[in-house]
Amino acid sequence: MSWLLLVTNLTGAHQTLRVRIWRALKAAGAAPLRDGVYVLPDSENSRRVFDEQRRELEGASGSAQVIEFASSNESQEEGYRKLFDRSGDYAKVLKGIAAAHRQIPRASEVQARRRLGQFTRDLAALALVDFFGGEARRQAEAALADLATAIESRFSADEPHAVKRAIQPVDRKRFRGRTWATREHLWIDRVCSAWLIRRFIDPKAKFVWLKKIGDCPKGAVGFDFDGAEFTHVGARVTFEVLVASFGLEGDAGLAALGALVHYLDVGGVPVPEAAGLAAIVSGARTLHDDDDALVKAIGPVIDSLYAAHAAKKES
User: In the CATH hierarchy, which fold is given to the domain comprising 2-82?
Assistant: First the structure.
């Protein structure tokens, strides 16, 4: 295997710079071999990290060299790999997840979702510097998924079950000025779907928030509950099904939001903004008992996320 070595030399009183470089290399997962010498597995990102620190050192009258080398034998290879063993870090996260799992019956929804968000961020940060993966990482990710499922079961027990069918395109004209119905006490998929409906599908949509699914008014368009016209299909959550059904899949901003909603609703590939959106929606739910007020409050947040991703694609 190929490795990268950063050899640094900084003379004089540059303690602030030393600390800054040390922190940057630690955050990137670099392992110190001795004072001023760091190693990383060879990759494009590793080269970028070392080159950035090299340039900063040279700008402060120091010097640095980035050296590529290969392990000379299996013993040396194993020794370098052990420098990046993150099993102890995963064990700490697992311990916290287990404690949070036990506390679900006594925790408020805000507390439970806040802790889930924190563990999600912790694992995402750890994964960035876990260059070799392994059983500890898989175990932690599985525990996090179990915690998310337990929280959903506790606070959203009536989540829809995915159906197996093809998603058929629909005529948007049939859905103008309609009444749309979903379960009350909105969470991520439902509040984002309501935003999507008003923003891209039916600007004059009216919403009914159901205490019981059986209370759905005749003629209303149901979404995100078992038996609804638009709900989970296969691996897609309701937001993604609406995007596909109404021919909006070419929109980069909606694609990014779909990945975000998917991760927060059923798990999967982590999304950087996930913990932030979950915290905002969770907090907004404590401020607004009325779901109409919740949709109004969250709308600008989703508008901003959509605009950010759309602009990123254009640039």
Answer: Alpha-Beta Plaits (3.30.70)
